[in-house]
């Protein structure tokens, strides 16, 4: 077992971004001045997009899918990245109400709709287990950013999976 920036796991888990206690690849996390931040993969300029919410930074997105061999890690990684980008967008936009939050979650849901093809190409699909896990992650994001009244179904309303 190794540790990197408060993230524990085997060397392979750390390299794959699957160590315990994070939601981003270990090399993307840093701790400084009591604030946990991480780079969000896929930012438009390739630069640093901070994740300052400690609850989110410590969360391992889509853990159940990583644990099931039916879901290829390389495709699940892309789903995790969608969720991390959603978190970065919530932090950047600071939505003031549920309507503004839903606009952000709907855009991320559309990204998951597009990801369905990658699952199928890898011999998998977004089926019941994946649907529930993804929906729960959207609910987690809403709760982590203070939207206790968010409707779990509305968060992912445009889903096609």
From TrEMBL:
Return the annotated region ranges for Disordered: 1-21
Pfam families (alphabetical): DUF5713
Which InterPro entries does the record match to this protein? Answer: DUF5713
Protein name (database record): NTP pyrophosphohydrolase MazG putative catalytic core domain-containing protein
Origin organism is Streptomyces hyderabadensis
